[in-house]
Write a structure and sequence with these properties.
With 634 residues, this protein is of the alpha+beta class. Helices cover 38% and strands 21% of the residues. The protein has 21 helices and 22 strands. An eight-stranded mixed sheet has the order 5-4-3-6-2-1-7-8. The protein is elongated and about 105 Å long. The structure holds adenosine-5'-diphosphate and magnesium ion.
Length: 634
């Protein structure tokens, strides 16, 4: 019996390999661009015709190849990038397998012009389906110029399965963007059918993002930086408020190569969960540097999937880095942005000596006085580091501002809108009390700490150094109370105000069951409540923030909200209860606030873990920068 096993001819082996590496024109683009980068090019030009089906050309000014190298580069497993066994580690990292050019040459017409700097002439090499058609000296610039024509000419099945021009062009653009993004130090151009699609000048990462995805990103990028032994993270997340309904720009790079990772994506999603409404997607451009022996990038032939040795740790580090970045940005929305810092520098006008801004404090003003305790939460509880930095940043921005005295809003808008005069007598009295407080404050403008103004009994406007913020009063209070309640439940630290007369309250069966179920949560938050027979309870005290409510009505409406959020959101018990109670007990739109009440609300808001959105993800704070304001007056 004769032997039946034969070695495959190289050209067939190459074609098989090509099937793995080259799936569509975009794969060729990716391989060629990466080779140019590996060859240390500082300028790379991509020219594509008919979505890559007719021509893909990459011209670089990199190192170029000698005549022999040019020939060798088309052999399978030919790579200049691995010399020793140790280098095998970097195969794993960078995906050098010496397969790309050989694969491309086996399924297309490839023409390569290349010259090393120190040589007079370069080489021209022409290959069709692995067959060398010609090799000769040629006059060409230093660097490499590769043309790939008639892709899949000898693999009709593949050619047939290519998608429409639009789809294939989109894939090419995706690959181009992925490569260009992480190499802002290289100039890239991209022409398609003689249209100029991209001209990307050298710059930094931010500039590259902006020149690829548009100017609007300039305002929307929040820097993320973290360095640990395991991983170094740098890059940007897109501000939560700019999150998109469609999957936006989501880019992970590991050691400068684009990768996809659901796992890491989840880490970011989780970190921004509370800030992004359901159905929206976070945007990010993040570069992870990981020691090469910690990853295996060759899991997938096209090298976009990756396996980390310590995936969980990287997940956690990334998650906290993103949270930290958001935290900083929450209170200092524009301080993070290089190009805006000029607005934070007071302009020296030359005719008087520069004076350090000083902060004066009204010694008689006590925002924590008894009366206010009812409408707002008590003293500041123990802060987490995040809360502390939120608050301190806020104070820096907001307080020091009182002495800068620019755009003094109170002076420009001295009276409340007339619309409010139509309200009830109680509110009129309150209004008088407030506007007189307003006037008093004006007497020492620049010394008072409250540069706030209430708009439509619904929003609080406060000046910050880089512009102003508008705060939704009811949502702000909801956030404050929610965090208080969560903490109170965890630490059993709710503060109860005793009622003069204990009340006996009877609920319907369903609500009574719920109250029994929530008894310990109610008590830990400050309800002094105990069962008193069938469906009846005695209430002897209420949480400080709830004293003005009728206990029965309050509990009934909290339970109703609680039930529906348990059902629809599948929250856990404490979470759902804290949300419901906060929602119900928060001050409402329509309530007029005194300046010191506003100040206190703002203070407490920025002492929160997350001052930016309500527990259900609604926006609390919106920032308008001076930049934006100035634009409107151009
Ligand atoms: P790999 O990149 O994995 O080494 P390739 O098949 O992509 O394998 O390339 C083979 C070799 O050809 C490279 O190792 C490099 O030496 C050379 N080469 C390819 N493209 C270029 C280029 N644009 N400039 C200089 N050398 C190149
Ligand atoms: Mg390569």
């Amino acid at each position: 019996m004769s032997d039946i096993i034969q070695l495959l001819p190289d050209s067939i082996a190459n074609q098989i390999a090509a099937g793995e590496v080259i799936q569509r024109p975009a794969s060729v683009v990716k391989e060629l661009l990466e080779n140019s980068i590996d060859a240390k090019a500082t300028e790379v030009n991509l020219i594509v015709k008919d979505a890559g089906k007719t021509l893909i050309q990459v011209i670089d000014n990199g190192l170029g190849m000698s005549e022999t190298d040019a020939r060798m580069s088309l052999e399978r497993h030919a790579t200049s990038k691995i010399r020793s066994a140790e280098d095998l580690f970097s195969i794993r990292t960078m995906g050098f397998r010496g397969e790309a050019l050989a694969s491309i040459a086996s399924i297309a017409h490839l023409e390569m012009r290349t010259k090393k700097e120190d040589l007079e002439v370069g080489s021209l090499l022409s290959v069709e389906g692995s067959v060398v058609k010609c090799q000769e000296p040629v006059q060409t610039k230093t660097g490499t110029n590769i043309q790939v024509k008639n892709l899949f000419f000898n693999v009709p099945a593949r050619r047939k399965f290519l998608k429409s021009h639009n789809v294939e062009t989109r894939h090419i653009i995706d690959e181009f963007e992925r490569v260009a993004l992480v190499h802002p130090e290289i100039k890239f151009t991209f022409h398609h059918n003689d249209n100029e699609l991209f001209v990307l000048e050298k710059g930094n990462f931010r500039k590259r993002i902006v020149s690829i995805f548009g100017k609007k990103y300039n305002q929307q990028l929040v820097p993320v930086e973290e360095a640990t032994n395991l991983v170094k993270i740098s890059g940007f997340i897109v501000k939560p408020e700019a999150a998109r309904k469609t999957r936006g720009e989501q880019f992970f790079f590991v050691n400068n190569r684009f990768i996809k990772s659901h796992y890491l994506h989840h880490s970011i999603q989780e970190a921004m969960d509370e800030l992004i409404p359901k159905g929206y997607h976070p945007g990010y451009f993040l570069n992870l540097e990981v020691p090469s022996d910690f990853i295996d990038i060759n899991i997938h032939p096209t090298k976009t999937e990756i396996k980390f040795e310590d995936e969980r740790a990287i997940y956690a580090i990334l998650n906290s880095a993103v949270k930290q970045a958001i935290g900083k940005f929450n209170v200092a929305p524009s301080l993070d942005f290089e190009q805006e810092t000029s607005f934070n520098t007071p302009v020296y006008n030359g005719d008087r000596p520069l004076k350090m801004p000083e902060v004066k404090v009204n010694p008689n003003f006590n925002p924590f006085d008894e009366e206010k305790k009812k409408s707002f939460s008590g003293g500041r509880p123990v802060e987490s580091p995040q809360q502390k930095s939120n608050r301190e940043n806020w104070e820096k921005l907001y307080r020091s501002n009182a002495s800068l005295n620019q755009f003094n809003l109170e002076n420009q808008l001295p009276t409340l809108p007339t619309e409010e005069k139509e309200d009830t007598t109680l509110q009129q009295r309150e209004e008088q009390r407030i506007s007189s407080g307003f006037d008093q404050q004006e007497e020492h403008t620049g010394t008072n700490e409250s540069k706030t103004i209430q708009l439509h009994k619904k929003y609080i406007m406060a000046q910050i150094r880089s512009g102003f913020v508008i705060i939704h009063q009811s949502r702000a209070h909801e956030r404050i109370l929610y965090e208080e309640y969560i903490k109170a439940m965890a630490m059993n630290s709710g503060w109860s105000q005793q009622q003069l007369f204990p009340q006996t309250v009877t609920f319907n069966v369903g609500d009574a069951d719920m109250i029994t179920e929530l008894m310990s949560e109610l008590q830990s938050i400050g309800f002094d409540i105990s069962a008193f027979g069938k469906n009846t309870f005695v209430i002897q005290g209420l949480p400080a923030y709830a004293t003005e409510y009728d206990p029965k009505e309050l509990l009934e409406s909290v339970i109703e909200h609680y039930k529906s959020s348990m059902q629809s959101l599948k929250l856990d018990k404490k979470e759902a209860f804290a949300r419901s109670l906060a929602r119900k007990t928060a001050i409402k739109s329509g309530k007029i606030l005194a300046p010191e009440e506003m100040t206190k609300l703002i203070d407490e808001l920025f002492a929160c873990e997350n001052p930016y959105t309500t527990p259900s993800g609604k926006t609390i704070v919106s920032t308008i920068t001076l930049d934006e304001l100035n634009k409107r007056f151009q």
